[in-house]
Amino acid sequence: MELEVTRVVAALSQARSVLFITGAGISAESGLPTYRGIGGLYNDQHAEGGMPIEEVMSGPVFRRRPELTWKHLHRIENACRGASFNRAHEILALMEGCFERCWVLTQNVDGFHRAAGSKNVIDIHGDLHDLSCTRCGYKERVKDYSQLAPSPFCARCGGVIRPDVVLFEEMLPPAKTDLLQQELDRGFDVVFSIGTSSVFPYITLPVVEAASQGKATVEINPGRTSLSEVVGVRLATSAVTACEALWAARDKWRHA
To answer: 224: domain range?
Structure first.
């Protein structure tokens, strides 16, 4: 891995702008289960009465039978409860102060990037701890779900409460997609893919486009993905190991 790290350090030494795209793999090292794969929460083929998990966790089912979706939201939150950000999250937050522009695009809903200190975060799928009423719009942030009812209702108007996360078959938040596109239009000198299986087009496209433009692209992932043959450098290791190696060499690339 030493040669690959050297190549990434060389790219960072010339960079003024960096985009980090993160997925479940970066938080797995905090003890969080991934949705599929190692300890995956979605490994069961069916969740309720033969209904696929993607259907139970979809917007249409939530609107018809919120108690079913909430059952699995509680399951996800309970599996994550008590965990916190790890050294990889911390290092990405520190890197924000080392470049003129540095952003994190994350698929994760755990809120770890902001908790670790990152300010420029686009949490494209939302945050599990931000709740809102589907009727009156009242918003609340909670530490965990331990005090929530199995299917909670708004204390103000009696409306159904939901976390501000993107369920299956729902559109991505326009404000976040607009912000992402605005930053992508400005361009990034280096684009990282960290701990993501790279399934969604809006996650793979920034990497593919950067590679096609001759920009430096890096994948950090123990396993291979659809981007493994696209990126310029692949670090086949964990997020913490790779980030620590890059941070240890910061005197060779930092600009601030």
So the answer is: 2-31+84-125+170-252
